[in-house]
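Re: beginner question about structure tokens

> Can someone show what the tokenized structure looks like for a real chain? I only ever see the sequence side.

Sure, here's an example I had lying around. Input first:
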Amino acid sequence: MAPVPLEGHQTPAGNNVPQEGSRGGTISLTVLIDFIIQRTYHELTVLAELLPRKTDMERKIEIYNFSARTRQLFVRLLALVKWASSITKVERSTHIMGFLDKQSLLFVDTADMLARMARETLVHARLPNFHIPAAVEVLTTGTYCRLPACIRERIVPPDPITPSERRSTLLRLNQVIQHRLVTGNLLPQMRNLKIESGRVTFTVEHEFEVSLTVMGDGPNIPWRLLDIDILVEDKETGDGKALVHSLQVQYIHQVIQSRLVDNPQPLTEVYNCLHFFCQSLQLEVLYSQTLRLCRDRLDDHIHVDEYTPGKCLSISYWRELTCKDPKSELGYRLTVQVDTHDPARPLTVVHVPSLGNKECEIADRAIRTDLLSMERLLVHTIYVRTRSRLTELKQEVQTMMKDVECHLQGSPAILSVPVLQPCLRAEQLLVTVDTHTGMLQCHVPQYEAPLIPELQTALNGDHSRLPTLVSELRYWITQRRCEKTLQHLPATPHERLPLLHHPDHPMSKIGRHRMFVRLHKHPNVILIVEFKEKESTQCEIDCSFYLAVVKHSSIEDDPHDDSIETEIPKMYLKVLTLIEFDTFVITHGPFTSVDDQSEKFPGKRKPGGRQEPGSRRTKHPAYFIPELAHVVALCDERIPFVTLAQELTKREIAHQGLQVEANATALVLRLVQLPPSPGVDTQSASWLALLKRLLSVAIRVQGKATKNWMAEFVFYGSPLASSHPKEQGLRRPVYFQYDMGTADTVSKTVDALLNDWSQIVHLYTVVEDLAEYFRIEKYNLSNMVTIKSYSYSRLVLGYGPDRGATVTVDWNSSDKAFRLIFGATNNCVNAHSLMREQLEAHLNRHRNLAQIVHILHETYEPLISISKLPTIPQLGVHNQRPQVPVQTFTIMPQSPTLLRLAYQGMYCLELRLRGGGLVSLRDGAYSRFDRSNVVDEFTPTQGLKAFLSKYVDETAVFRRRSQSEDDNPPSPITMDSDGGGGPMSFLGAHHRGPQSPAQQREGGLRFHPPLTPPSGSNPHTPASPHPAMSQAGQHQSFGSSPATSFNLASPPSLPPNINPSPNMLPHPSPGGLLANSPSNPLHVPSPAGLMPTSSPGPCPTVPVGHSPASSFMGQTGVSHLSRVLPQRSWAGAVPTLLTHEALDLLCSPSPHPQHLPGPELSPLERFLGCVYMRRQLQRFIQNDDCLTGIPTTEPGVVHFKVETLQCRVGLNPQHLQSLHIKVSPLPDHKEQWTVEEMQIIEKFFDTRAAAPPYKPNALSGFGRMLNVPYNVLKDFVQIMKLELIPGLVQQQQMKWAVQWSLRTPPSATPIVPTGMAAVLVCRTKILVFLQITRIGGPYQSTIEPPSLVLPLVYDVSTNLTQLAEKRDPGPASATTAASLQLKRFAEFGVSHNECSLFPAVRDLLCSLSLPSESQAQVASSPAPPTMQPSPAMQMHSPMPGGVVGMPPQTGAGGPPQQPSGPPQSPYPVGITMGQHPMMGPQ
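And the corresponding structure tokens:
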């Protein structure tokens, strides 16, 4: 189909628009597409309306035509759009062609224009004929003379005269004018003239200015009036406009010019006319100003009485004064009028009443100035009137008050009357006249005095009342001065107070001019100030002072009866007593002087004869009353002393009264004698000695803004010589401070004083006894403690090494008991804070400081050792609730020498501190009275006796027990009973009876019972040591064995140095044998003959190739004769004596005796942790199905078995500080396990599962690890081998090192709660957690290697190992890369003949690459990862550095294989260092 153009859319070419060849216009592609869409839509709409009416064939034809047409249209549009992509080249070509077309068009137009000019325009072109004569004349002569003559005659003016002719003419005219003025009559008012430029100008000030001239020099030629200027102005109401219109000036000009003709005196006529006109104009201006003043501001205060235009203006003022003052009958009026005697003179002012000549001159100036103002005239007139009236009043006032000197000054005039002497300007009575009304007004600038209206009435009326009113004003201002004086003092003035007193009370004699001053700090005291005028000088005020003691009462209270009390609010003050002060005495005290001494000594004469000016003492301002301020300060200072003295007298405490100290320095109240304190015998030697030492007791006031009582006790010497530098002299002052309250609180102050006195007395009683002990050399107290300070109020003792520990002893008055405060200096440690309450109770019971000194000295070292035990709460202790924190050690003091140590709320040790450097330890789980009975809160500690026996030093233990004593439970009566807080045996040997359990628990900590009831099995109890074969020199350091030789008496062939061990002692099975039955048939042979003597010192490390437990657990089959010991459940309850050095070894953190990896812990914590883990293992075997227990008669050993292995777990018998496992195959599976694999399991248990921190879930995870199918366990062992022997990782060139997680780490995927066992077996799937750490590569420098925690799931049925991932996949990370690696291995590398777990892990360790291997740190692991020991080894440690890592280990005798690198963090990836601070890393 041929192309069809778009109808109606071609842009027509304009006729006058140049076209670019045959090309059309342009259109926007957007508009074109819009047009096409609209057309298509329109055609569709038309088809929709028309097709239903047509036949089927016609509809098909129309639809086909529409689709073909539309298709062609859009095909063309598509071609156009494709072509538009190269439109830039087309546009450039278009512009070039357009430019060429334009140039071609210009050439064509130019040719057409030239042809048109040649053919049409230039054919008819012609030039005119030139006027040659005129051109020649103009060009040659420069002029043209051929114009018509009428132009010159009618239009061109004549030539002007020359400047010289003009000057000569004007000069001649000036001479003519001067001659006419000299020869004629000239008024004196017109003598101000000026002749110049041929005219004379007359100026009359403030009226007019006129200019005249003459038209010739003839005598009869009249004057010609040239100019008139009216000088009258209204600057106030005229708005700057001229007062006379130009037409009026022209009319006046015509009138005067007409009168100048044929007038014998023309100049006089000019003056008269203009003078009359200007005066009339001045009066009119004043009248209009007056009307505006009345309308705008002054209202009826002024009034126009008469106004005659051109003649006079009369105005009256002070109309109110005219009505009220009988003296002014005529009123006050001023009249501005024309002078009746000489109308040629200016306006005059007439005053009624008349004024003096000077005053009239002052008033007349107002209308004879440039500013014509009625307001100025009134102001000047009223000012003169005001000054006149105030002058009369001044003379009258000075006549009435002879000592008053008034001053009249200012404008408007003000009369200043000083009513006081001295008087500030702001306090003077100012009197003036109201300018509107003429009435006298007065006020005091400083105050709004209520007497002013009354005083103003007297000034305008009866002047006889003025002296009385001025006197009242004088008193009122003095009262205001009192308020000003007291505004910065602790007192408030009042003009009235609701006082109650009977009519004949002295209060009624005080005058009515007075002020009441209430003192803020003394609400029961009121200072009354009475004012009186001096008889000689009325302007000076004398003050009298009274002190009234009041009390709050109601209106119905009888002033004569103090017993009447009603429930009405007590709003009134009843006056009890009134004291009048002698003004001279109170202002001339021993150290205060109010008056100025410069009057007596006006100046001192220097040797040179020059006299100094008077005293430079600063004068007080006039409003300050120094006597009042001094009296208030004196009352404020002395009233507290008086109130205190009254309270002391009431309590029968003798004192000397208020006194002034020497040199007038301060006030002092000295006490003569103080009463004895309650509970102190007045006949005792210590009380009498204290009274002899007490020199004085004085009470003073200290401070300025905040005042306090200062009590000073001065003593002579001290019974104890202290090392404090301020306590070396014989005068020993002791100071106490008390808050100064009101009179109601003075009893509290006296109580506080007596309490402090009691503190001194009670402390002195015990110090006096202590001094006696110090003087007796046999007690040797001087070598135990040092008196650092004794200030009579407290005693500070220094003890311990270098006397670094301190204890402060003082008496607590509120508790009526002594108080101890322990401290330390020089980086010393003071652990006695643990025993503070018990030591305080001991001191308050016996009041013997010497006993406290001995106790502190003897218990210092053991308590320091006890304080080394960790008390930090730990997480992961409970099996099912690992997030619950449990305190490691809890110290519970029972008495000054007895305390209990609870370990994780389960085990308890009772520690008794003895004299002579010994302590005794026993199992606190046993009752103190029945050693076979276990208390409810705790569980017996199995093997405690054997463990403690390793630290017994027989050379230091002075008490021995016989074998019969050990075999039979001793009675509770024979136990040590001095732990109830009684004195030590070396201080008097007062023994107390045994405590009841209720007494033991009172005040101590109570623990919840354990989750399971205590085991019924008997704890491990070794034989008691005997002194028969003790050897000297056995007590050595930790490196040597503290164990001693025991004589077991049977059989005699045994070596004498057998150490008690768990293998020697029988133990009941869980079935429960009789506890104390000697007929127990279960015996075990003793391996003592096969083992070296045990020692808690370092033991040689067992190499990897041998089991660490085989040396003591694998030889149980050898038979040896051994004495069978009976079952004794009370063995741990028998106290074991230890030296302080041994206790310190027990409690101090130290490396493991076998140098097993892990943090440094104390031996006691390691032992209790191992016992706790062994017990938790037993519970795990009983409660969980994965392990099967094996009954055994071996005490302290746990037997269990799994599918192919049997295990034996027990403590190391040499030091009892670590758990070990012995693994052996079951008889049916001996061929399946190699010795190396079993040793790897044993070593993994020793260093990972049972290592500190002791978390039971680690054992649970280990047990579940063993309870897997045989082939899976084999792979587990291979992974353990990679962890235990790091050298294998490098030998196999792996990129990652692997570590087991026996507990779920916090950074792991939240599949299992944190802290729970990290090995789960569910049907055929096994979940384990492995931590892998990048080694080698770019991570050997300072960059921390990345670390990942991978939860691996092994399916036994499908033999697939994969990563446990979240259901919602997150962003790509290293974990995702590990998952992909495992899936790739499962797809290509799985062998169906072997377990895929270890091969998958090995492939992961060798092949895993991070997404960004070049970066130093994985984005998903912000925390620095670590090549750490097993997560089971990690533990939160209170020591700096947090976790002690595992040292490098050697594999197969090689060097340490730990890769070198930066310090390694104990935290896995994804957890910050601060997470789980108590639980530690997993």
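Each token stands for a local structural state, so reading them left to right follows the chain. Confidence is low (pLDDT under 50) at residues 1-22, 594-618, 959-1129, 1414-1482.
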